[in-house]
Amino acid sequence: MNPPPRPHALADEGAPALRRQVVTPEGVPIGFSLARAGDRAAAFAIDMVCVVAMLGALGLLVLFAGIGARVLMSLLLVAAFLLQNFYFALFELRWQGQTPGKRLIGLRVIDAHGGALSAEAILARNLVRDVEFFLPAQVLFASEQMFPSVPGWARLAASLWALVLLLLPLFNRDRLRVGDMVAGTLVVLTPKAVLLSDVGGERVGPADAGAPHSPFSEQQLGIYGIYELQVLEDLLRQHSDQGERDDRLAQVCATIQQRIGWQSDETEAVPPEDFLRWFYVALRAHLERKMLFGKRRADKYAGE
User: Fold this and answer.
1) With contact defined as beta carbons under 8 Å apart, do 274 and 202 qualify?
2) Which whole-number Å values give the CA distances from 260 to 118, 208, 224, in the listed order?
3) CA-CA distance, 143 to 184, in Å (whole number)?
4) DSSP state for residue 264 in the 8-state scheme
5) Structure pTM?
6) Transmembrane segments in this chain: where (predicted)?
């Protein structure tokens, strides 16, 4: 289970309040826009409508099957329990951090430390939903039924506690609910996955530098997707302090070479920036060829 994301979800200097930055395993800082409270509420409302619709469809199916009212109620209670506890987790596992509601609104759950969103984090953030939403909602709207013999001041205190849990995302700078704090996740606006303008020819390409034609295999290029191409695009376009930029290029170059299984002697005496530009050109061409045949790889986690 990941620790809370505070140390790694840093606000960009001078950036809007909802802008945060995470560092990928390749060592590249990537900015994200945090989901607004209204967006998260809308996505959750859509998902709850889906849950209610599923329960209604199941109820009608069982009703038309001629099963008795007692059995019908038992089945609906079991289905409600399963949907309440596993609807969100299963969709986020299958859709890389999205549910139907999040997909419609344009939101996604990400790891706050820049890594892959793990199954453990998804399960952790969703298993506490009862404590942070469903139970507080019952306390807030049905306190007399839940605590019939409790004095009024105690019901008021319980209602205040429930209200704090329900509104917690409004009172912290990263819009985190309890599940996000436990799992180390953020909910962000989904970045648009589009191919940007080519930067491969701005300084050097494989032909210009004397590199062999198509030095990367299909298997090596198939590891990364459009999102990683954008990350590499941004890195190559950066004009920060030269020493800092060179260090970052070297770090990313080493990470990519290790990930694709590139032999060190093949890149001997080749500067990291040249290698990255070669890889950018080859990866972009590879992705464009795939897109021509309707095969679109959004990122390196797609299909895993």
Assistant:
1) no
2) 22, 23, 9
3) 32
4) G
5) 0.61
6) 41-64, 71-90, 153-171
